[in-house]
Write a structure and sequence with these properties.
The chain has helices at residues 23-37, 85-96, 113-123, 138-145, 155-165, 174-183, 234-240, 264-276, 293-298, 315-321, 334-337, 352-363, 366-383, 386-401, and strands at 2-6, 41-47, 56-58, 64-68, 107-111, 130-133, 168-171, 190-192, 220-225, 247-252, 282-286, 302-305, 326-329, 344-347. By secondary structure, the protein is α/β, with parallel strands linked by helices. The protein folds into two domains: 2-196 and 385-405, 3-Layer(aba) Sandwich (Rossmann fold); 220-383, Glycogen Phosphorylase B (Rossmann fold, 3-Layer(aba) Sandwich), CATH 3.40.50.2000. It starts with a strand and ends in a 13-residue tail after the last helix.
Amino acid sequence: MQIAMVSEHASPLAALGNVDAGGQNLHVAELSVALCQKGHAVTVYTRRDDPSLPARIRTPAGYDVVHVPAGPWEPIPRDELLDHMPEFGDWLHRRWSRSAPDSAPDIVHGHFWMSGLACLRGAAGLGIPVTETFHALGVVKRRHQGSADTSPANRLDLERTLSQRVDRILATCSDELFELARMGAPHDRMSVVPCGVDLQRFTADAVSADAPAPQRRMPHRIIAVGRLVPRKGFDIAIAALRHLPTAELVIAGGPRPEELDQDEEGSRLLRIARRQGVADRVHVTGQIPREHMPALLCSADVVACTPWYEPFGIVPLEAMASGVPVIAAAVGGLTDTVVDGVTGTLVPPQDPNALAEAARELLADEALRHSCGAAGRRRVASRYSWNRIAADTQRIYHRVLAPSEEPNEKVAAL
């Protein structure tokens, strides 16, 4: 099968941790790898944001990355890309309209709403079905961020239209499925296919020759990972640290370490740590190389995921694969992945006292931590391997291409 992945702002080649580089980049990369391993030909189309980038790259994993000339060849904030999507879509249409048999894909998979718009434009009139993974919904972002939401004003209307026009929606969690239903997306064209985790990379005994974080100075270590943006809720973990005198907090993610001084959110978090009187126990590392992330997680007693909202959340999967218990805010996809009382603890969002109470219980009981860690590893091994996610995705592609040959059922990998 010839598969076109369209990820307009999230290149699978980008370094993770910057403001616009996170879970979507990883999802596109890992899903492409897993589908290639199943014998499919995968091409990822992403916007060209650097004149030095080649037009096409064949990755070592076997999939191709094509840099689409849409807008200026320079970085543009994600929320300012909508005006360039017609150019992106027209470029795809010209490419897929060529007479060469391998020019047009059998199926197109858009990642994020703007990619979906480009997919519909690119596939128009060509008979190519379009599937869509939103990764995040504007209605949820606006609900939680209000006037701070920098999305285009018409995002909600465009997402609603997109949800009704694509051939299939692959929601990443049950919460997203409910949100889409409230938007009017057709029930019979939605499936739940979550993100996955690399079970070979993330293990309970991962080590690294290079120290992935500051040397531990306290009996217990709590780790939080993600882009340095306010909605990730790292300030909640900092506030909870006041009630955990034996613990230190490592916050990994964001710009490169040498750029942290100029990072607005990183500076804000350090100011909060000083006000809370825990600055000596808070370490903001900046961007951690991907190859060091398994060892970093293995150095934790607990991984804390405390966002205001979370469309899915890959970090809990990586922590569970590493045999580390997770304390997570009960929002979005985290309520699917983290089993309360089994693989960790779910707490109310934006509640540092509840987070501190949950952490205190886990940190005081080594046997409980080991039990939760082992249960987490079993859960991701059975539910969230990229091989399983690719198999579920492949099944949906076949259903879209030949609906009469597939049973009309939802793929739920929860």
